[in-house]
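Data availability (excerpt). The following record was deposited with the supplementary files.
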Amino acid sequence: MKILLATGNPHKVTELRPIFQAESLDDLAIQIVDLPTAGITLPEPVEDQETFEGNAQLKARYYAAATHQLCLADDSGLEVDALGGEPGVRSARYAGVAGPRDVVDPANNRRLLAALEAVPAGARTARFVCAMALAVPHDWHDEDHAAGRLRRVEDDAPEGSAHLAHTVRGTIEGRILGPGDTGFTIDHAAGRGTNGFGYDPLFLVPPLGRTTAELAPDHKNRISHRGQAGRLMWQWLRKTLQAS
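Predicted structure:
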């Protein structure tokens, strides 16, 4: 079974694909395909919802309806308690800078550190959140009649659109690097570690003493917000497709 992952972010593909491949059913091989690999070039939908769940559902339904494929989408970001939950759903656009990730990520990180300049390390509590939604096109079907099983839906989608099949959420608690932390300086937006992206180099997991960018990929996948959401979605998908 092919599932379109509604993203052009290769880091998300790298994190999610192993979950579905490693845990695929013996009689149900799951193939995760991202937008560039599938050759899909569509205008991105406007992510104007106020919650991670709302944006994930919007994207999943948009791409499922447009491509006529089973579609998985996520919306993820950082919530910092001292900033009232910001950057939240605006995490990817926090600095208001457009461009490739190697431009946008450092700009977002610099703005975050500037916003927290007066906040001591112990008060920089935060969490990564990932909401993930699966949508089924109105006209989608396969030889195993999986469409009928997946359409135990939360809404009544009109013809030509897409059904919302399921939504999950994963979180990981931590804090943002601050004064007193090894390797921290106010102007060091690169943070610590090179294995992550976005805010990973600034997000410290206190019990581990490391940022999520300092974790090996398999370790990060076991505890990350996206890894948790991916496993929850896979568990629901497996249960639903195995149901008689």
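Summary of structural features: Residues 48 and 55 are 7 Å apart (CA to CA).
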